[in-house]
Predict the structure.
Amino acid sequence: MDAPSAATLLERERQAWLPFEALGGLTDAELDQSVAAAHDWSARDLIAHLIAWLGDAIDVAHELTVGATSETRITSRQGFTTRGDEINSEIEAAWRRLPIEEVRRRLHDVPVELRRAATAVPDERWLADPENLRFIEVYSIGHYADHVDDLREILAAAAMGGAEGMTHRNSGRSPA
């Protein structure tokens, strides 16, 4: 079977991302409520985790737009292999300091930027090294699939009004 085209992959990515857009409909308070059934993550934590790693996929696409290879593809995989948990903790801490409006903006804008950046890559770059497109797939569709249960738990807890399984997470900011 032939490798998927970039256009096909990006359509699959768009469809896989759609359920995560529901996070944008949560209230500010719900975004910062940790959910026991989702590894004690809040919606903000889940957004941070997915969007931050999408940043590497965007960087790969930008590099492939201007050159035949991507240093980010190599360093990101090495970083995840050697320091994955540490990087994830750094992402979580950094995103907890962001204003909620910025979290919402990134939730909306970063997936769009991924599609825009990947579409700009010349087809021959995807064909020359199928691992380039595979990287985009793993860091998007594959990663979304890894966290769909977390999404489901976070949305379910929010739908229940936070009464079950949600606890307030101090974001480190003073209350507004």
Q: What stands out?
A: The chain has one domain: 6-163. The helical segments are 6-17, 28-31, 43-66, 71-96, 100-120, 123-128, 130-146, 148-159.
